[in-house]
Amino acid sequence: FYFRNKHRPFLLFVSLLHVHTPLITTEKFQGRSRHGLYGDNVEEMDWMVGKLLDVIDKEDLKNTTFIYFASDHGGFLEAHRGNSQLGGWNGIYKGGKGMGGWEGGIRVPGIFRWPGVLPAGTVIDEPTSLMDIYPTVVQLAGGEVPQDRVLDGHTLLPLLQGTEQHSRHEFLFHYCGVFLHAVRWHQKDSGTIWKAHYATPVFQPEASGACFKRGICTCFGDGVAHHDPPLLFKLSQDPSEANPLSADTEPL
């Protein structure tokens, strides 16, 4: 692929099987990590991505190639074998894969590399979306997105290059299947981020933070609790979504 296209623009999209269950890890990487089979899978994924980057560097394409590495969702909390956690870990964030609006299922890092254009070591703490890939790629290719419809995504280049300081996503809507579970409001003038949950998964057992009895949380029916008024969190101060606000605690 590279040798056919290295002298002209190309788009390479790689969807890795890693780090998805079942954790397919080759013999070479089994037992490499201190963190069990999941860690082995992460290390093999790291090696695979490294091989791709090595070719980009070897072909002298480093400074002209825009690379975006991301995940489609957070860790899968219900994936266990005995006491071994097979589906990842979401740190301080509540919930995980398939849970509608909780941060653990939707807040994933994006890692960008474009040495000729993007400054190294920059950290941007702004909410973006995988829906932004399409308009970003269109802009990089010198095209224009369709003007006859509203697109959910926005080009990331102004944010990445520092010509804009804030994400163009003032609101993000978080669905579970076809059901709206939560809405995030990024209040631009203050930098405050609010999130309202209209429905949340019913954890089983209740205090477990996941749906272990079902194997994965469902989006509707008796698998969710509905909130009226919605559960409201100030994400900029409470990223773990531990303290729902009320009119008493947050008059605004």
UniProtKB/TrEMBL annotation:
UniProt gene name: Arsd_1
Domain Sulfatase N-terminal residues, every copy: 5-142
Keyword Hydrolase: yes
The organism's place on the tree of life at top rank: Eukaryota
Cofactor (UniProt): Ca(2+)
UniProt entry keywords in alphabetical sequence: Calcium, Hydrolase, Metal-binding, Signal
Similarity field: Belongs to the sulfatase family.
An MF annotation (GO) of this entry: arylsulfatase activity
Signal sequence segment: 1-26
Protein known as: ARSD Arylsulfatase
PANTHER family recorded: ARYLSULFATASE D, ARYLSULFATASE FAMILY MEMBER
GO cellular component, one term: endoplasmic reticulum
Organism: Sterrhoptilus dennistouni
Keyword Calcium: yes
